[in-house]
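Subject: Interface between my chains keeps coming out wrong

I've been trying for a while to get a sensible model of this assembly. When I model each chain on its own everything looks fine, but I need the whole thing in one frame so I can look at the contacts. Pasting all components below, labels as-is. Any help appreciated, I'm running out of ideas.
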Amino acid sequence: MLRRRETLVLIVTFALLAIVPYIASITEVPFYLDLGRRMMILAIGALSLNLIMGYGGMISFGHAVFVGIGAYVIGICAEHELVTGFIQWPLALLACAVFAFIFGAISLRTRGVYFIMITLALAQMMYFLGVSLDRYGGDDGLPLAEPSDFSGLIDLGDKNSLYYLIFVLLLLCLWICKRLVNSRFGMVIQGARSNETRMQAIGFPVFRYQLTAFVIAGVMAGLAGILLANHTDFVNPDMMHWTRSGDLIIMVLLGGMGSLAGPIVGALVFILLEEALSGVTEYWQLIFGPFLILVVLFARGGLLGFLEKRGSSEEDDG
Amino acid sequence: MVDPHLLFEQLFNGVQYGILLFLLAAGLTLVFGIMDMMNLAHGSLYMLGAYIAATVALATDSFLLGIAVALPATLIVGIFLEVVILRKLYDRGHLDQVLATFGMILFFNELVRLIWGPAGIEVPLPSILNQSVTLFSIPLPLYRILVIGVGLAVAGFLYILVVKTKIGMLIRAGASNREMVGALGIDIKKIFTLVFGLGAALAALAGAMAGPIFAATIGMGENILIQVLVVIVIGGIGSIRGAFVGALLIGVIEIMGRSFLDDLFKLFLPVNAAETAAPAAASMLIYILMALVLFFRPQGLFPARSG
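Reply #2:
Try treating it as a single job with all components included. I did that and got this:
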């Protein structure tokens, strides 16, 4: 269920995001448009991670790998002059589903610290694979010759159209997450987070449910990757680097884990903080690092948790 | 075909790299095992050790003095981190631990960039160490032999510490059931601090010794940390013996894979394809091994705890 404050936060956030292109055009700072697109793409990534991490208790430290795979499929297709989005996009999503299925099947055999380390290592493996793919740019990455082509339906080369496409897709992902979380499927996932043995005893094949959630999250992250490739016109292994996965985790926690608005707000705040701090000093991570530690020590529940504190009882974390 | 001399030489390099991995894995596996703590900042301590040792060595012209300063300095940093931050996180979920130690990595990388600049530091070897020893008519660098020697000595020391002493007994007891150890009236916090400090010192030793081989660079800690995590997963969390076997295994596979995989591939692939596939496969080798180990033995090769 969406709580009242959370709904309010979402409405305000999306209203703000909706007018960003307008602000960018009257202030004549196209950078705002760029910033807004990046925020929303990462918000999709964070939403997908929250699905398994916040609701499912599966702490994946390699989630950015699916963003990278999605982006790479677009890049590789474009390199081979396959630019029609009607083939590129399903192909990218399918690739993410396949990889998420394999990685999930391996890592979900483990729990706790092991799970974190396996997801991290598998993602790093793909990162190194990207680095050693000389055919597709290796370390330097691969410039995207052309954005995905939807034969006149929508022109992704136009930055405003791309913006609103991302906007709509973010809304769609939010809706999917809301439906999933409140469904029977979502209840099983959440039940397994608080007590896996109990769910198994009731008779749910927990592994299958968790694997399905893992694949859904992987595909959604892949969508973020597809958009990211079209946004930057560039694909590189750095998208899969483990620090990118760390960034996604930070966004989810910053906003508030296990809530629907949390990851979106977290992604927005993360990008804003990054911009603001790096404007103050070149050594901005000197501030950001300790800030994270302080958030962990003193601000449990993230921004949404802070807003909700008076409203309802706090979420337990997995 | 493969030159047997080259094969031996690379095997030697692999063992030497494995020893470095072991020095990092030994401390970290205890932290994971006993405290059930996800610590990503271990690599930062390795980097810190490398930078401090390099700076002192360059300033005083004494490599040994560099190591002698880096060890206690990093130990102090490690204990400071444990007492001020990490101690508050033991009861928290792994996620909080991941995030806080990730914050530490960002902080330390930036700190090093601020103090020492973005370029790495090359550490020259004292001339006395910069020579080679001929073994089976193959010249091997003396320094690397020394690194292996130091690593084996540390492994021996840890073995005696963990298996033969009272502290070691408490460490092992803590790894299998820390609540019980606490209930028996042992100050488990002190054990934690001790283990963490020991791990920090070993990381610094590894960093200081890695300096002349790889140079001290920003981010050196993260690259090796991931491999150390693979070592720990393969060896079994909390097990020093597992860390030792796992480290040598990963070290040898990592180095040998990079040198010989293309030759191996050429046996059954066209030359072109082999040369494209080999580097990609070599960098994935250890992760594939880890996936296999997990598939057949999810608890690692030498699980430390039964539960």
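Reply #3:
Confirming on my end. The mean pLDDT of chain B is 85.
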